[in-house]
Amino acid sequence: MTHIPPPAEELRLLDTELWQLDARRAQLLARRAWLLAALQAQPSVPAVAPRAAVSPAAGPAGAAVTPETSVPRVQNVLLMLGGVLLTIAAVAFTLVSWGHMGIAGRAAVLGSVTVAVLAAPLPLLKRGLRSTAESVAGLGLALTVLDAYALYEVALGSVDGTAYTAGASAVLAGLWALYGRGLGALRLPVPAALSVAQLTLPLWAVASGAELHAVSAALLATSALDAAVAPRAAVRAVRVTAVTGALALGAGGVLTAGSLAWTAAGPGAAARAAGLLVLAAAVALVVARSLPKPEAARGLAMTGGLLLVAAAGAVLRVSLPAGWAVPAHLACAGALVAAVRGRFAEPVREGLVRAGAVVHALALLWAAPLVVVTLLGPLSWAARPWSGAPSDARTAVTVDLPWPPYPLQAVVVLAAVTAVLVVAARREAWGARARTGALGLAWTVGMVLPATLRLPYAAGLVIVGCVAVAAAFLSVPWFALAASVPLAFLSLAAQSATLTVLSPSP
Question: Is residue 428 very low, low, confident or very high in pLDDT (cuts 50, 70, 90)?
Fold first, then answer.
């Protein structure tokens, strides 16, 4: 059983324990005071005062001491929270309580709040609270947007919303830029002004009811202005904003102009779209010449080269018969590569050459179906040997595969790229690879030519056989073997052809 002492004895025990706790607490507080004095005597040592484990009744003497360096942070947080609450109150006032006051009262309240918030960064900067000043300035800029909305709702409701937004963005951009210039220590207002200025020209074009050509021109013009601002901006945030705007709006303008060029039904519409693409290409090339990093300059110059080819090809596409669009683009790419020799700096010149190479590769990809049908089509004769000689070389390769459209244009593409590689083989840097590519494409042209020209079956066998012999003579065994396989399968159509092709030579 638990022994319960008399009340007097229990009271004496409690008093003893409380006295011991008080003594221990006094000892710990004395040690803590000594440690704080030692830390203040050595300010260069970054140490944090230990926390004292005290009872709830310890009072102020036992409270944890917050380092003085955290006081500005607390002020920043409190001021920022106050600004956020002020903005929320202004939004609630604008959206909820707006109709309960007259025009003069509304303007006075919102105007006073906006002016007070915009003026608040001045004393904050004098006290060294820069981050808080930036936050308050951002809240002030947000309040100016509310002012613009309130003005539209009260006095300008009959104005077109898109047109008003375009004008308001221009006015706000100017005011924010002046505000940022006046408070030079703040970094937020000027990038914000540049950001909102991106909306002015595109929204104005949309509000005026202009067609997509004007909208694309507005996007590209804004992108060009951003590209002009970026290298001249001394503040990193302004440069980042300008570069982002130039890339985003430039991409939008290029995509719009590209779709217009692709869907153009006549030379006039194609020429207008081509002019927009040329404008975009000019901006890209001008910026590429000023970029310090070679890789960035090459990439931007390649983009400009592709836009120039697309612009010229768009006009030729609607002016030439069907099927000649790809050869036309290929001719433009070849002209571009020939025109850049010695006229630009090395990164820009290399970027334009890469653009031409991309167009050549895409043209070869477009011509690939003709090569696939010509080389794989003869395999179908393995299932029907000696079933009768076909009427011509094209019929011989299309037993089970459909014949692709525009075969003659595809042969022109293959021959043109072959000629380009022959010229490129003269340069030491590309010599070996260009020679290999030229031989491969020349072999391809020889293989697809009989079916493209619809030569007689026997003549097609002779030409393919000559291609195999020529490849062997030039010591290119892979091309010789690749020509012999289709030749062997083609000969299976007729017994006489099989015996002639597969019989050993004397």
Answer: low
Secondary structure of 113-134 in the HEC alphabet? HHHHHHHCHHHHHHCCCHHHHH
Coil, strand or helix at 456: strand
* SS3 of 156-177: CCCCCHHHHHHHHHHHHHHHHH
Residue among 384, 408, 383 nearest 394 (CA): 408
Whether 452 and 466 have beta carbons less than 8 Å apart is answered as no
Ranges of H-type helices in 377-430: 393-397, 407-424
DSSP 38-96: HHHH-TTS---PPPP---GGG-GGGSPPPPGGGHHHHHHHHHHHHHHHHHHHHHHHHHT
Give CA separation, 83 vs 113, 132, 349, in Å.
Answer: 11, 9, 53
Q: Report the helix count and the strand count for the chain, using DSSP H and E.
A: 20, 0
Residue 98 has pLDDT above 60, yes or no: no
Percent of the chain that is helix, strand, coil (3-state, to 5): 80, 0, 20
| Terminal C-alpha separation, the chain | 124
Closest CA to 344 of 290, 289, 279, 294: 289
**Structure-block tokens of residue 352:** 């334009």
In the DSSP assignment, the letter for residue 211 is: -
Which of the four pLDDT bands, split at 50, 70 and 90, describes residue 55? very low
Strand partners, 456: 392
| CB count in 10 Å sphere of residue 439 | 19
For residue 338, give the amino acid letter: A
> For the segment 211-230, what is each residue's pLDDT rounded down to a tens digit?
899 999 999 999 999 999 98
Q: How far apart are CA 213 and CA 263, in angstroms?
A: 12
The encoded tokens of residue 30 equal: 């004395």
Q: Quick check: 297 and 289 in contact, CB under 8 A?
A: yes
Measure the CA–CA gap between 343 and 313, rounded to whole angstroms.
23
Torsion of CA 224, 227, 232, 236, to 10 degrees: 140
**Number of neighbours of residue 390 by Cβ within 10 angstroms:** 19
Q: Which two tokens stand for residue 409?
A: 């244009």
| CA pair distance 467, 481, nearest whole angstrom | 10
Sign of the CA dihedral running 493, 497, 499, 504: negative
- Number of Cα atoms under 13 Å in the Cβ half of residue 208: 15
Q: Which residue ranges make up each domain of the chain? A: 76-207, 368-506
How many angstroms from the chain centroid is the CA of residue 101? 48
pLDDT of 105 over the 70 cut:
no
Angle among Cα 376, 382, 387 to the nearest 5 degrees reads: 115
Q: What is the pLDDT of residues 384-409, one digit of tens each?
A: 889 888 989 999 999 899 999 999 99
Residues 6+ apart with CB under 8 A from 215: 202, 205, 206, 256
